[in-house]
Design a protein that fits this description.
Length: 371
Amino acid sequence: MQAGLIRPSATIREDRPFELLGLAPSELRDYFQSMGEKGFHGDQLYRAIYSRRLFSFDRLTEFSLQLRQALSRTASITLPELETAQRSVDGTTKYLLRLSDGQRIEAVFIPEPSRNTLCLSTQVGCPMDCRFCLTALLGFSRNLTAAEIVGQILFVQANQDKGETGRASSERSKPLNIVLMGMGEPLLNLENVVKALQLMSDGDGLAIPVHRITLSTVGLVPKIRELAQAPVIPNLAISLSATTDEIRSRLMPVNRKYPIQALLSACSDFPLPRKARLTFEYVLIDGINDTDQDARRLVRLLSGLRSKVNLLPLNLGEQGVWRPSPPQRIVTFQKILRSKGLPAFIRRPRGADIYAACGQLHRAQAARNTA
Ligand code: SAH
């Protein structure tokens, strides 16, 4: 992280507290120095926020009373606020969170037997307009800041801990997977996403091992290449969902700009750790992209890549013309992939009863005419 990003005269305004969440240690050091204090307080504050999860200056007893008061006057540590939390029969919890400008996003906590998964948003709304996704109906409002991305983790974990009282504390000790698969296209917000990835994976930060973090994209080719150069490289998931450009362009307008071959070529250049695989997500829509021929084409397309496929039965909005592929079709599709040596998994929708499943994050019920 570059030092000297903070120019006090330009960024610190008297009328609004200066946001300290989301800053790198070097930026926090700069902040303290701009107050005429010792830079190492920045490192102390960084560990207080991310390791000790302290979000109030009053509780930073390692700082003098005078320094705590000065911080309270000039700065803030702002987590998203809870608007509603809904719990599914399967234990999945969907949080509707309010940001400081009143915009709202969703984060989904998915408990599983051997791990927990937290699905984060990276934008308010989304401009990609995938025809099967409800988030698309919101249109695009803005990118989330790095603070708002990691803020979702800090908020949800604090909330889960509160709910834990009385319940087995084993939930807390399970490993946590992070998936950037909520609202938005993470690669359209690459700078803030990379900054958030650094805070997540840093040992003095949230200390989430990078192999437990997955970024999912519609397939923005130049941005995939840019991510490959980032200081922190997460697992990559690609939403493919079709095996011909004709069908894919119909489902995902982005394909007109970056067709399948260009996308797969960027994927084959993506640096993969030993034994790791790229994930291809494939939303199965009855009669649209789910034939035996599609399955065989998918095997051919992915043949040169170390990859695995997650099959997602289409989750529905309230209405819509398209239907998920029937269970037997999905099993047959999976069998064809597996018979050719391509690992394929059927993803059970989680939290579908509360509209928390993939493609259902849209704050309010809305229908999409998928014709
Ligand atoms: N913009 C990113 C991340 C958000 S979508 C991306 O597109 O990858 C996360 C996943 O949900 C994607 O794989 C997407 O294909 C899937 N998805 C979207 N709408 C869906 C729906 N209605 N049913 C099932 N999966 C859906």
